């Protein structure tokens, strides 16, 4: 098997394994992966727009609307209109959303710790460096 083919296979298999472990351990409970990603992004960006969230998820803005609607309905996000321009709507995290996100992070960290537990700290840092390099070059 060619090196690039092997790399692709390993990346897909590890990604699938991590998603399955997170799913089977109920880390996200009542959240989809996309909803969790949105909550993390909104926490990092504070007040953000639908367009920014869609860009982060690499999807078109209309496709992010149902995800935002679900999170607003669950009480995790809120829409806030800009005072001087009501056409602009910011998305922000509620207290409930922050609490839910912190709870999910704790659960996910425990699962990730188990998945990568056999790697040394140096291996983990090298892996992070490699993935950050790949991500930075492909944005």
Write the layout of secondary structure elements.
Layout: H1 3-24, H2 33-45, H3 50-57, H4 61-73, E1 77-82, E2 85-93, H5 95-115, H6 121-137
Antiparallel strand pairs: 1-2
Would you mind describing this structure in some detail?
It is globular, with a radius of gyration of 18 Å. 68% of the residues lie in helices and 11% in strands. With 139 residues, the chain is mostly helical. α2 crosses α4 and α2 packs across α5. The model has no long low-confidence stretch (mean pLDDT 89). It has one domain: Arc Repressor Mutant, subunit A (Orthogonal Bundle).
Mean pLDDT: 89
Write the CATH homologous superfamily. Winged helix-like DNA-binding domain superfamily/Winged helix DNA-binding domain
Largest sheet: 2 strands, antiparallel
The H-and-E topology, N to C, reads as HHHHEEHH
Based on the coordinates given, report the CATH architecture.
Orthogonal Bundle
Distance between the termini: 28 Å
Low-confidence stretches: none
Radius of gyration: 18 Å
Structural shape = globular
What portion of the residues fall into strands of 2 or more residues? 5-15%
Give the fraction of residues assigned to helices.
55-70%
What is the spatial order of strands in the main beta sheet?
A: 1-2
CATH class: Mainly Alpha
Instruction: Domain count, please report it.
Output: 1
Q: What is the number of helices? A: 6
Remind me, CATH topology?
A: Arc Repressor Mutant, subunit A
